[in-house]
Specification:
CATH architecture: Sandwich
Number of helices: 0
Number of strands: 9
Largest sheet: 5 strands, mixed
Strand content: over 45%
Radius of gyration: 17 Å
Number of domains: 1
Mean pLDDT: 92
Structural class: mainly beta
CATH class: Mainly Beta
CATH topology: Immunoglobulin-like
Distance between the termini: 47 Å
Shape: elongated
Order of helices and strands: EEEEEEEEE
Low-confidence stretches: none
Length: 119
């Protein structure tokens, strides 16, 4: 984008923004099953994708974000990442939190309270 200008005449720059996307397979009502395990695929997009990723951690909450627990991120041989969650029988929702750092030192924090419901 070097050399491009915005409408104000200022030079445009590309920001080093990365993101984490969670892609749980849910029922037609966008809910998961209570008391069951669910493997949630996740992907890193932006400059931190691929070899640009320095670190990635994920946490899960089953009480609307009051208490958080570490969720282990696993990476398959093909490079796909996921977390396997054990849904408690009494929980009504799942909240997810991710923190990633890219090799340039940029940090991205994502919190999704009530990412999906449980029934």
């Amino acid at each position: 984008m070097s050399g491009r200008r915005s409408r104000t005449g200022a030079a445009m720059v590309t920001l080093p923004l990365s993101t984490v996307r969670f892609a749980p397979k849910l029922d037609l009502g966008s809910a998961g099953a209570k008391g069951k395990k669910l493997t949630v695929p996740l992907s890193v997009q932006g400059p931190a994708a691929g070899k640009g990723l320095k670190s990635l951690s994920v946490q899960v909450s089953y009480d609307g974000g009051t208490k958080w627990a570490k969720a282990t991120v696993t990476t398959a041989k093909d490079g796909r990442r996921s977390v396997t969650l054990s849904h408690p029988k009494k929980a009504t929702s799942v909240s997810l939190k991710a923190k990633l750092t890219d090799r340039s030192g940029n940090v991205y924090d994502l919190t999704v309270v009530k990412a999906y419901l449980l029934k």
